[in-house]
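User: Sequence recovery, please. Input:
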């Protein structure tokens, strides 16, 4: 493999990421959010807010279905969040100050999560 000079006319600038770049906009389609979860690893990490606490989303995938944005529902595999299009199925999360855990473990200790309405920052 030989090095090739980069054409400066075709180069583009990518701004530095900030912590806010990891906040998920739940009005976006679920497939886009699932890709964003992967893209934000390991920093700034995709996250949402629930009851004033940040929840890092470490693994998630899109599943089809008619969704109500921001609404959390029970799913056979755990919990899913309504987005602008389809559902974002949560697989692994990390509550602030705690270890990463499968969504089922989180639900065992936080029954009020399912059925809640997630706002941008509450």
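Assistant: Recovered sequence (122 residues):
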């Amino acid at each position: 493999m030989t090095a090739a000079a980069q054409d400066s006319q075709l180069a583009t600038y990518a701004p530095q990421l900030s912590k806010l770049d990891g906040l998920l906009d739940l009005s976006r389609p679920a497939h886009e959010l699932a890709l964003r979860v992967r893209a934000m690893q390991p920093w700034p990490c995709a996250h949402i807010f629930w009851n004033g606490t940040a929840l890092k989303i470490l693994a998630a995938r899109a599943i089809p279905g008619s969704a109500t944005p921001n609404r959390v529902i029970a799913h056979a595999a755990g919990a899913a969040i309504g987005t602008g299009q389809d559902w974002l199925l949560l697989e692994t999360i990390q509550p602030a100050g705690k270890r990463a855990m499968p969504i089922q473990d989180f639900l065992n200790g936080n029954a009020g999560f399912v059925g809640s309405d997630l706002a941008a920052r509450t």
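The CA atoms of residues 34 and 61 lie 5 Å apart.
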